[in-house]
Amino acid sequence: MTAAAIELRNLNKSFGLAKIIQDVNLEIKKGERHAIIGPNGAGKSTLFNLITGKYAPTTGQVLLHGQDVSGKKPFEINRMGLSRSFQITNIFHRMTVFENVRCGLLWSMGYKYSFWTMVNRQKELTRRTDEILEQINLTKRRDMLAGALAYAEQRALEIGITIAGGADIIMLDEPCAGMSMSETDLIVDLIRKVTESKTLVVVEHDMGVIFDLADRISVLVYGEIIETDTPERVRASKAVQEAYLGTTLEEAS
Amino acid sequence: MSTPSTNPLTAGTSRLIPLNHALPWIIAAVVLLLLPVIFESRGALTIMNQMAITIVFALAYNMLLGQGGMLSFGHAVYMGLGGFFSMHVLNWMSDDPWLPLPVLPIFGGFFGLLFAFLIGWFSTRRAGTTFAMISLGVGQLVASMSIIIVTFFGGEEGISGDRTEMLPFFGWDFGQQQEVYYLTSVWLLIAALGMYLYSRTPMGRLANAVRDNEERAEFLGYSQRNVRWISFCASGFFAGIAGALFAINFEILTGENLNLATSGQILLVTFLGGVGFFIGPIIGAIVFTLLQTVLSLHSEIWALYVGILFVATVMFFPFGLTGLLALHVLPWKLGKIGYLVKPYAKMAIPGLVFVLSSAAVLEILFHARHAGRGDNEMTIYWWLTFDSHSPLPMIIGLVLAGVSAYALVKLVPGLKAAWDEATKMGEAGK
Fold it and tell me: Nearest Cβ partner of B205 from A83, A93, A103?
């Protein structure tokens, strides 16, 4: 039996007295598209930050491909094949779009902390950077400063940087936050395209996006996962409806 | 004028000035070769050498500040230690030399690197205020060491040496100032080119990435601490080279080379020139050295003028003198630089009057308070002689300054309008 891509075992996180994540157990299989939903303040972002290494768990374990990564630093977790995006756009503002994506490629292409190669002369690096720009439809913006992009383009760039390194687990934190309907459709198509055959974990508020994209959904309420199932069953679940979805379910679908 | 600046400025930051061709380097080499033909006096050579040393140091400093986003208040430590160590190597070799003088900066560089490695181990763990505070503490620590560890630092007198005692280099023993000039210039070119190329490597780009967004860099597989540490070591290396060049030029190092004043000065130089540009520190170092050497011959309060210039730069042109120049790139590219000639010309005379009259007021004030008793006569601008204690010159100075300032303020809207016109992207597909 192959190990799950991500496995959470009795995961707990407290800040002072506040218990934000309580006894979370979750298994996300390789190649699965998994969504985490929940009302505001349910601890979605905290859970995300626990998996990606921004926070260390108070108790419990996070396993990637069967390996315990609890307490590891973000860069170490990234090197194990997990890459994430951010809810608040987190790009390199004073660098060009091209350079932003290239930064995402450097480690995976083995450049490490090299200071003896000229970065502009690396043909393969440039080619792959351009390839990703093509995928995220930002080829036209190649030499613009990232900080000067429109918001939706910055979100696309965010995803481009995230997938550049070729990680096989992609975690997206509210990739559609603050976008219009049409922009959302575009970005969902993009996500589907660039995460093909990868494990995807996405936290999202937009119900439409989730039900459409995810194989399975976990519902997080007050730091606990109350249900993990297929979109249809989550939609039908009484407990979920009471705890979270309520009437908004009908509006969303 | 400072606000609508984002376009050309930021464009400059990302590309670090399009220097990607060899041409600017060839021009620089030719200029360095020819300068002593034009300025052949010993004094001029000394000033140019000092300029070269400051350029290397400021460029090294900007590897931290501009490229890595690390504000250091103690970078004199690495230049100073590189210098002290070079001086010891020089003295140690003087009895039985087996190396020529031009290789000495390599020793300085490696000593700077060694110390940056050791101190960077703990100081680069965090960026921002923590880094700045640690750099300040370390700066103070090493500066006070210079009085305590007398065998290495020579106490109050410092340590000195004789550069001519190393092996001659193709017949040069570096007794001549001009020989030292060429040695310094060659090292200036090597160091500047080295730092420029470094900025084009993955490491150089990662330093930018960590500067812009350390968290994101971390999630791309890079330890922000290691990126800062390596940048810090590289900066220490080049600062050490500057220190060795100082040792060669002045043949003496004292505690002053390590203290906070020197550290603060290089921050000022770099910021004055503009931290967002590769050539920023070069321009800053040239302007500052000129002020320090030439202006100080004519005015005892030159440091005050430098201070005012610095404050004005920080307030009005946060991208430094280079940023100010870079602002004009966009109108130039749009072919509209001509729009600016007239408003600039209009402002030239009131501007000049304002600078000269306010400086005169400061000079009169200084003379009246500090000249010896009975020495009331003072001369400014070579031909203007008057009694500094009489109120009339002071009143004239203040009135001129006030009137010219008023004229300048009145002319600002005109300049703004011209500026808007000159930077407008052609709407009709121009």
Answer: A103
